[in-house]
Design brief:
Layout lengths: L4 E5 L6 H11 L6 E3 L20 H11 L3 E4 L3 H9 L4 E4 L1 H4 L2 H10 L7 E4 L6 H13 L5 E5 L17 H9 L5 E3 L1 H5 L5 H10 L4 E5 L17 H9 L14 H37 L6 H17 L4 H29 L1
Parallel strand pairs: 1-2, 1-8, 2-3, 3-4, 4-5, 5-6, 6-7, 7-8
Helix pairs in contact: 1-2, 5-6, 11-13, 12-13
The structure holds phosphoenolpyruvate and manganese (II) ion.
The site of phosphoenolpyruvate has 9 residues, from helix 4.
C-alpha cells in the first residue's frame, strides 16, 4: 500500500463514541485521512442530516488521540469557516455540490488564501466539464493541493451499482488533468459491501492514486449508508487482498488499458440490459398465462426481429450477427415464460 493514498472513516459522524471507536480501529493502518461527514446532503427530507458543528471537536479528538489527519464534506461558506476553525486537515466537496457552480464558487471564495487540500467528488451525473470546472474554480482561488474523487454516476435504470462507475470518465479526467491525484470511492459506487473489493481492484488496475472507503464499527447499525460500510478489520482484509502493480504508466493510461476499461464498462451495461430484458419477459409471461395465450406470438416476433434488424442496419451492424443475438434472446425469453407458466400451473 506504499504509495496509495487511503481515506477511511464513517459516512457520518454519529456520536463521539462511534467516531473515536472507528478511529481506534483504523489507527494501526496506513490511513492518510480520517473521514467523517458532519453535514450530510440527503436526497430525501427528513433523513439524518448530520450532527453539524457538534461533531467537529470529535474530529479534533481523533487527531489528538490517534495522530490521524481528518477531513469532512463542506457545502457552503459557513461549513468552511467552521471546519477551518476546528482545524480539519482536508475538505471535500460532495457530488451534489459539484453539480452547482454557484456553490462551488462560494466555497472557492471562502478558501482564498487558505492552502488546505481539497478533494472534489465527481458530480452526480456524468458531466466531465462540470467536474473539471469545479477543480478549476478551486485552482483559481489558489488551492494547490487538489484531488479528484471518482464516486460513480447516477444513471437511470442502473441495477448493479448504486452509482455506475463509467470508468472512461475518470480516465478522461486524468488525461485532462494529469497532475491531479485520482482517488476512487468504491463505497458510493457499490452501495453494497460485496462489490467493494472488485471496484477497488479495478481502480488499482487503472492506476488510480488512492481509495476513499467508508468504515464503521457496526456497519449495519450506521445511520447513513449502512449497506456499503466496512468495519476497520474488513477494510484491512480487503486492502490486503488487492493486487497492486509496481509499474504504473504515470498519470496517463495507455490506449489499450483505456479501451479495455471502456469495453468492460460496455459489456457490463449489456449484461444489465439483458437482466432487464429478461425481467420484462417474465412480466409478459404472467400476462400471457392470465389471458390463456400461447407463449410464441409469431407475428409479434417477426415484427420485432425486422424492427431490430432495421435499427441495427442504421448503426452499421452486421445483420446476421444481430439476427443471431435476437434469436438467442428470444429463446431465453421463451424459457423464462415457460417457467412462469409452469409455476402458474403448479399454483392452481
Ligand atoms: C459521502 O462521502 O458520504 C457522500 C455524501 O458522498 P457523495 O457526495 O459522493 O454522495
Ligand atoms: Mn456516504
Amino acid at each position: 500500500m506504499e504509495d496509495m493514498l487511503l481515506i477511511a472513516g464513517p459516512c457520518s459522524a454519529e456520536s463521539r463514541a462511534q467516531v473515536l471507536e472507528t478511529a481506534k480501529g483504523l489507527a494501526g493502518m496506513k490511513v492518510d485521512y480520517f473521514r467523517a461527514g458532519i453535514w450530510k446532503p440527503r436526497t430525501q427530507p427528513g433523513a439524518f442530516e448530520g450532527v453539524g458543528r457538534t461533531g467537529l471537536p470529535w474530529l479534533t479528538e481523533v487527531s489528538a488521540t490517534y495522530g490521524l489527519k481528518t477531513c469532512t464534506e463542506v457545502a457552503n461558506a459557513q461549513h468552511v469557516e467552521d471546519a477551518l476553525e476546528a482545524g480539519v486537515d482536508m475538505l471535500w466537496i460532495g457530488a451534489r455540490t459539484t453539480t452547482n457552480p454557484f456553490q462551488v464558487q462560494t466555497i472557492a471564495d471562502s478558501l482564498a488564501g487558505v492552502n488546505l487540500p481539497v478533494a472534489v467528488k465527481n458530480p452526480t451525473h456524468p458531466d466531465l466539464a462540470l467536474w473539471s470546472g469545479a477543480i478549476e474554480r478551486l485552482a483559481r482561488a489558489g488551492i494547490r493541493n487538489l484531488m479528484a474523487v471518482h464516486r460513480g454516476f447516477a444513471v437511470h435504470g442502473q441495477v448493479k451499482y448504486r452509482n455506475a462507475p463509467l470508468w472512461q470518465i475518470p480516465i478522461d479526467f486524468r488525461n485532462a488533468h494529469p497532475e491531479i491525484p485520482m482517488i476512487n470511492d468504491p463505497s458510493h459506487i457499490s452501495g453494497r459491501r460485496d462489490l467493494l473489493a472488485d471496484v477497488s481492484q479495478m481502480a488499482m488496475d487503472l492506476a488510480f492514486d488512492g481509495l476513499m472507503v467508508e468504515t464503521h464499527p457496526d456497519p449495519d447499525a450506521a445511520w447513513t449508508d449502512a449497506a456499503q460500510q466496512l468495519t476497520p478489520a474488513a477494510l484491512k482484509e480487503m486492502l490486503a487482498g488487492l493486487v497492486l502493480r509496481q509499474v504504473k504508466e504515470g498519470a496517463v493510461l495507455d490506449g489499450l488499458a483505456s479501451l479495455r476499461a471502456e469495453i468492460n464498462m460496455v459489456d457490463e451495461a449489456i449484461i444489465e440490459l439483458f437482466a432487464r430484458r429478461m425481467g420484462m419477459s417474465k412480466a409478459i409471461g404472467k400476462h400471457k398465462v392470465e389471458r390463456g395465450m400461447t407463449i410464441l406470438q409469431n407475428k409479434r416476433w417477426q415484427e420485432l426481429l425486422a424492427m431490430n434488424l432495421e435499427k441495427g442496419q442504421q448503426l452499421g451492424l452486421d445483420a446476421a450477427f444481430l439476427a443471431d443475438v435476437f434469436k438467442a434472446v428470444h429463446q431465453a425469453s421463451i424459457s423464462i415464460q415457460r417457467s412462469v407458466m409452469r409455476e402458474g400451473r403448479n399454483g392452481e
